[in-house]
């Protein structure tokens, strides 16, 4: 029997036995529904896609221990849980950024700039050095040009 004709229970049973084709069929069958529920709660396409991906990855990772009685309820509950976790991570991220900004307020400008370039923008040490030397050259040129004028 083709996988596309499996019932939800048959798909879940096959998934519990590591059947990747059954999982692919399950994903094709339900990703749009999970996406719609998620996007209604988190109107950010990037966040929605990440949450949907996490839901299906989690389902695959936990496939041998899952006890799903009614699939639509399970998917709705899993989606709400992932959305709440996402919102919670945003709240904690904002609090961490506030704490970081307060801590950085005591730093001089150059160490503060280096920290921002490295930790927040992800630049390498070489890229930071290049950036700072470019700024230094720019600052050296500006006073020189002003003296000529």
Explained architecture:
With 149 residues, this protein is mostly helical. The protein has six helices and no strands. It is elongated and about 70 Å long. Residues 144-149 have low confidence and may be disordered.
| Main sheet specs | none
The computed structural class is mainly alpha
- What fraction strand? under 5%
Number of domains: 2
CATH topology of the largest domain: Rna Polymerase Sigma Factor, Chain: A
**Total strand segments:** 0
Shape: elongated
Distance between the termini: 85 Å
Give the helix/strand layout:
Blueprint: H1 8-16, H2 20-41, H3 45-61, H4 71-104, H5 109-120, H6 125-148
Short description:
This protein has 149 residues and is an all-alpha fold.
